[in-house]
Design brief:
By secondary structure, the protein is of the alpha+beta class. Helix content is 20%, strand content 37%. It has helices at 2-21, 102-105; strands at residues 26-29, 35-40, 44-49, 52-59, 66-69, 75-79, 84-88, 93-99. It has an eight-stranded antiparallel β-sheet, with no helix packed on it. The longest helix has 20 residues, at 2-21.
């Protein structure tokens, strides 16, 4: 019985690990040579900033933008059609400005808009 449970646990862990391993990671390059990475979905983003990882949840935002926050750490990611900005709302600082993915530099919308509400460019 214990061996069966152990085997089931290992198989489940393998499936979970492979799901996370296949999750696409996107690199954002910003002004002042800053950089961060994101993965996840339109509703929940995993942010890697300065070698630390934070989970951010989508919040209500103005039309044409997406906003993700981690209220515990203060990280606040605002994504517009042509750039993103990373803030820390606890310390009141802008951590990174004018951040873009490689696709955004060619004029495409950010990947996070793929499953979001319809977005219209100005």
């Amino acid at each position: 019985m214990k061996q069966t449970l152990l085997l089931i646990s290992l198989v489940a862990a393998g499936f979970i690990g492979s799901a996370n391993a296949s999750e696409e990671v996107t690199t954002w390059t910003c002004s002042e040579s800053k950089q961060f990475k994101t993965s996840g979905t339109t509703e929940k983003v995993r942010l890697t900033w300065e070698s630390k990882t934070f989970d951010l949840k989508r919040e209500n935002s103005l039309p044409g933008s997406l906003r993700y926050k981690n209220t515990t750490t203060g990280h606040d990611l605002v994504v517009l059609g042509n750039k993103a900005m990373l803030f820390n709302i606890k310390s009141g600082t802008r951590l990174a400005d004018f951040c873009q993915t490689a696709e955004m530099k060619t004029g495409k919308l950010p990947h996070l808009f793929a499953d979001a509400e319809p977005f219209t460019q100005n």
